[in-house]
Structure formats: structure tokens, C-alpha cells
Amino acid sequence: MLKKITTVLLSVFFLCSMAIADTTNVGVKLSYGTLEASGTETTNLNSTAVDSGSGDGTFPFGSIFVEREFELSKANIALGIDYIPFEAEVDKLGGGNGTDATVNLKDHFTVYLQPSKKLDNGLSVFGKIGYSQADVKITDVSRQATTAGTASTDTGATKSLEGPMIGIGVEKEVAFGAVRVELTHQEYDDITYTNSNSKVLTAKGIELQSINLSLVKKF
Questions:
Q1: What's the CA gap between 35 and 68, in Å, rounded?
Q2: pLDDT tens digit string along 8-64?
Q3: Strand, helix or coil for residue 128
Q4: Which fold has domain 2-218?
């Protein structure tokens, strides 16, 4: 629901602002990020016994974005939306007495405000603050039978992942528009999934740090 409301509001804003906006920016972003998270799980049919762990991974990804940029007296400010148009397999989980599953991330988008300050020689510095949302698709779920109970009958589930984003960067004007380099940090809320045997899986402390290179066309 939040995603639908945000998309509608942004569409209305972009359409209404065409007459007063100074610049429309569209671009592609290439990123390399580190995702960190910790998690807990209760054992099958027993909510009192808990296993826990943490981990991280690094991976490349890409996105596309569009912005409406307004020129103010002392600085510029842009309102934008960034969308990752790919479905990525985050991990395959499984083994032993746990839950086997394939986890995919899809429909990840970020709505953001980006104030910037022009310097000399076509350089600008900017900050960024926004909010991200994505769908986490859990598929190929299975649960091994144990002495505590039978195998689960799960087939899959989709969960929402969302949270705030901040960033800083520098932009250089070039012939076709601009080139940007930025650092961003995103935090996501906890995800909880309960399988058919009442085993509870929780991912928490999910954070994504990334370095990003963007090519921007200005209209």
C-alpha cells in the first residue's frame, strides 16, 4: 500500500511541477555495496530455543533514476526516485535441521531529496536523504522432518523491506550532463517469517553501504 501511494504522489508531483521545474535529470547508476544483517530462528515447534548469527556480503548492482531539480537562491534541491529494475537472488538458505529457501529481492525503489551547492569549475557537492522499499520474495521453502515434528508445507512468501537512506556526494558537469560519485547508507526494518511448523525466522539490523557512480542527462 505504501508503495502504491508513494508512486501516485510522485507521479502527480512530477506532472504538476513541469511548468515550474528548472531541470529534469535522468540517469543510470552503477553501485557496489556491502549488505550486513543478523538473524535469529526458533527451532521447529519450539519457540523457546533460539539460534542466532550474523553475516555480510558484497555485490554489484545497477539502477535508473529521474529527478526534478529546482534552482534556489543559494542552492539547488532535487526530488527524485531511484529504481532497481532487476530481481536479484540474495542467497540460498538451508541445510541440517533448518529451513531451506531461496531469497530474492525485487522492486527496490528509493524516494529522496537531494540538496546541492555549486562550487567552481562545474563542481557541486550534495547531500541526500530518502526512504526505500522493496519486496523480499522467499521461494522453494522446505523444512526437514525432525524428531520434534514433521516437515513443513510452506511454498513461499513475500515480505516488504523498508527503511531510511542518507548519502553524500560530488557532481561534475560534462558535455552530456553530469557525472556523480556518492556514498550512501541504508537501514531496513526487521523481517519476520513464520513457517507452517511455527518456526520463526527473523532478520534484523539490515544495513547496506554502497559506493555509486552515476551518469546524468539534464533536460
A1: 29
A2: 555 555 555 554 558 899 999 999 988 777 766 666 555 555 655 556 668 888 999
A3: strand
A4: Porin (2.40.160)
